[in-house]
Specification:
The complex is a heterodimer of chains A (about 375) and B (about 325). Chain A contains 16 helices and 13 strands. Chain A has about 375 residues and is α/β, with parallel strands linked by helices. Chain A has a single domain (about 1-315), classed as Rossmann fold, CATH 3.40.50.11740. The two termini of chain A are about 35 Å apart. Chain B has 2 domains: about 1-135, 2-Layer Sandwich (60s Ribosomal Protein L30, Chain: A); about 150-305, PurM-like C-terminal domain (Phosphoribosyl-aminoimidazole Synthetase, Chain A, domain 2), CATH 3.90.650.10. Chain B has 9 helices and 13 strands. In chain B, the strands form 3 sheets. Chain B has a 7-stranded mixed β-sheet. In chain B, strands 1-6-4-5 form a 4-stranded mixed β-sheet. A two-stranded antiparallel sheet of chain B has the order 2-3. Chain B is globular, with a radius of gyration of 20 Å. The termini of chain B are far apart. Classes of the chains: A alpha/beta (about 375), B alpha+beta (about 325).
């Protein structure tokens, strides 16, 4: 497949691996966090770690949109389908995520709830048009990448005067979460975080640009390299991070120049700004409450806000005891350090956020890497 | 119902045994080892590029019988129809099924039809049962893989699953990919004739190549090491999987088989397979290794390694 295979070339990978090995200082450790689940997935799927020196460690961050959604919000969505009888539309990987009482949207569907998997917000709109006598709720999740399509759907619904469509908005923001990883009360209790540099998100940055990370890298004196999702992107970005670390620099660099600009997609940003506003605080599974880390539908479009249209209680479901996700997400521990890993917590029966989808650190360790342990 | 049976089923499936018009088909068999297999077919949509539920229900069961090395002899078919299911569609399905059975030389000799109330079924469900005879000296079983054995596949993987997905109502995308649905017993007969000591055969249907290899590894108590570069995948299947966030290793096939044989027999088998129309792109994709934990590992095309795990639940598209 053109424009993809080029970024998976073994020859280039081996050349890059030699350069990385040459430039890595053997007397120090390089702990590099990839924030995005997309990177985690690529690292494991292609076996990138095998090509890199042992003193370079990937720390797998919280950037998997389904993993970080708190159980309470999934309970809310289930409630909408079962108690309010709405047609609940959502993306595929949300279907299996466990909620309270071992429920999930897949199970609710099996029990007769009208839950539909869609590939686009426009599919949800179509369902609303085809079912004028039913309430249709789009269960919106994801980072900045999936937010503009939600905003488009809301604007479209308004233009068409679709009265039976609303959005249960759970869109979250990347920069706030990255900052929280390095600076939160929990982190101070955990001891020093030893992350030396960050791989910046690819798709998210195509929307928000590379500029939002500049404050972060300056404030925390950590290098950030915006990296594409292909394995060669990851390796090239690792080299760029190593060079910054070796030279004592902490800048935002952009490896993914074929897609990401400094300003990002201004049209998409304007669209989101028109329809949504910041939430004062939002709960992240594994990170807890993170201030200004999520979006909600603003008052101009509140008729499309499912949280206004239906009674949606705030549910605080606590994470499982013994689960090390908060520490794993911050690089303080590895999945294999957790007592639940692979015993009671597996991809078929996930206890913590990192085991929920293949992009989560624990699930990737388990499904792609457990032969190493 | 009698009219439906006479004018539709008997007419299309027509053969001597069916014409006996008994509740069972009676026939003579030679002495030897016999296999029987049954499979229920439910699929949405019922018609997809390269096949339909009718041909699929014939191919699926013939293949399950053939994976023992057996020559399939007869099929039976059970239909569950939802009230109101269009007769024209049913006829299309039965015609396709009869065509597949005739092409395969395996007649449908007995059957049954039930109708359930509207809403209690999904159009049509078809259960087929097949019987076959295993040639003398052939002993093929999922528990016979041994360290050092070679792992072969008869062609590109993932075609069926992607063809079906491309025609689902909420996911129509344009593709030239056709389902690989096919009866594999002819290919298997050639393979068994060339190398009667094949260790394992299995068709990687639901759950794809990855799931079937894990099953075989567990059944035989061995590990496996695959080479990603050696696994044949059509470029358009790769492209569709990239778009949908799926892994072709887990996408269903209906005309593929995995063969595990002694290392020294592999080359001979590959030659025989490539001479058959259903094995043109046959390839050796890896080897069996000693591993108590039964892990299937893969050397990636990128130069790293990873595990190829069981599929947990269904493969769902990723949003990111």
């Amino acid at each position: 497949m053109r424009y993809v295979e080029e970024f998976r070339s073994q020859d280039l990978a081996l050349k890059l691996a030699r350069t990385i090995k040459r430039e890595c200082d053997p007397d120090r450790q390089y702990n590099l966090m990839e924030f995005c689940g997309g990177h985690t997935h690529a690292i494991f799927r292609f076996g990138v770690q095998d090509l890199l020196p042992e003193n370079l460690r990937f720390v797998h961050g919280p950037g998997c949109p389904v993993c970080v959604l708190p159980i309470g919000r999934i309970d809310n969505a289930i409630h909408l389908a079962t108690e309010h009888g709405v047609i609940l539309c959502t993306y595929g990987d949300m279907m299996r995520v466990p909620a309270s009482g071992r429920k999930s949207l897949l199970k609710v569907k099996a029990e007769g709830g009208d839950v539909r998997m869609v590939y686009s917000t426009l599919d949800a709109l179509k369902i609303a048009r085809e079912n004028p006598h039913r309430e249709v709720v789009f269960f919106a999740i994801g980072f900045e990448t999936t937010t503009p399509p939600t905003a488009v759907a809301i604007k479209q619904a308004q233009a068409e005067g679709l009265k039976n469509f609303s959005v249960f908005c759970n869109h979250v923001l990347t920069p706030a979460a990255i900052q929280n990883i390095l600076e939160s009360p929990e982190v101070r209790e955990m001891g020093p975080v030893t992350i030396d540099g960050f791989f910046g998100p690819s798709h998210v940055s195509s929307i928000i640009g590379s500029r939002p990370y500049e404050f972060f890298s300056e404030e925390f004196q950590k290098p950030v390299v915006i990296a594409g999702f292909e394995p060669l992107d990851v390796m090239q970005s690792a080299l760029m991070l190593i060079r910054q670390i070796n030279e004592g620099r902490h800048e935002v660099e952009n490896e993914y120049t074929r897609v990401v600009s400094r300003e990002g997609n201004l049209k998409a940003q304007a669209l989101v700004a028109e329809v949504m506003e910041l939430r004062r605080s939002f709960e992240w599974r594994g990170l807890g409450l993170v201030p200004y880390s999520a979006l909600q539908i603003n008052s101009a479009y509140e008729t499309f806000d499912a949280e206004k249209r239906f009674e949606i209680p705030a549910i605080q479901a606590s994470d499982v005891k013994g689960c090390e996700c908060p520490r794993i997400l911050r690089g303080v521990k590895k999945p294999t350090d957790c007592q639940l890993f692979g015993t009671v917590c597996t991809p078929e029966n996930p206890m913590g956020s990192c085991m929920v989808s293949s992009e989560g650190a624990c699930a990737a360790y388990w499904s792609y890497g457990r032969f190493r342990h | 119902m009698a009219q439906l049976i006479r004018e539709l089923f008997v007419r299309h499936f027509d053969n001597d045994l069916l014409r006996q018009a008994n509740d069972q088909a009676a026939f003579d068999v030679s002495a030897g080892r016999m296999v029987v297999s049954t499979d229920s077919h439910v699929i949405s949509p019922l018609f997809f590029p390269g096949g339909d539920i009718g041909s699929l229900s014939v191919h699926g069961t013939i293949n399950d019988v053939a994976m023992s090395g057996a020559r399939p002899l007869y099929l039976t078919a059970g239909f569950i129809l939802e009230e109101g299911f269009p007769l024209a569609d049913l006829e299309k399905i039965v015609r396709s099924m009869a065509g597949a059975a005739t092409d395969a030389g395996v007649p449908v000799v007995s059957g049954d039809t039930k109708v359930v109330e509207r809403g209690k079924g999904d159009g049509v469900f078809i259960t087929t049962t097949g019987i076959g005879m295993v040639p003398g000296g052939v002993n093929i079983s999922g528990d016979r893989a041994r360290p050092g054995d070679a792992i072969l596949v008869n062609g590109t993987i993932g075609d069926h699953g992607i063809a079906v997905m491309s025609s689902r109502e909420n996911l129509e995308f344009e593709t030239a990919i056709q389902s690989d649905s096919a009866a594999l017993h002819g290919l298997v007969a050639d393979m068994v004739e060339a190398v009667s000591t094949i260790h394992c055969l299995r068709d990687p249907t639901r759950g794809g190549l990855a799931t079937t290899l894990n099953e075989l590894a567990q059944q035989s108590g061995v590990g496996m090491r695959l080479r990603e570069d050696a696994i044949p995948v059509d470029p358009s299947v790769i492209a569709a999987c990239e778009l949908l966030g799926l892994d072709p290793l887990y996408v269903a096939n209906e005309g593929k088989l995995i063969c595990i044989c002694a290392h020294e027999d592999a080359q001979r088998l590959i030659e025989v397979m490539r001479e058959h129309p259903l094995g043109r792109r046959a390839a050796i994709i890896g080897e069996v290794v000693a591993d108590e934990q039964g892990f299937v590992q893969m050397e990636t095309g990128f130069g790293g390694s990873r595990m190829v795990d069981w599929l947990a639940g269904e493969q769902l598209p990723r949003i990111c």
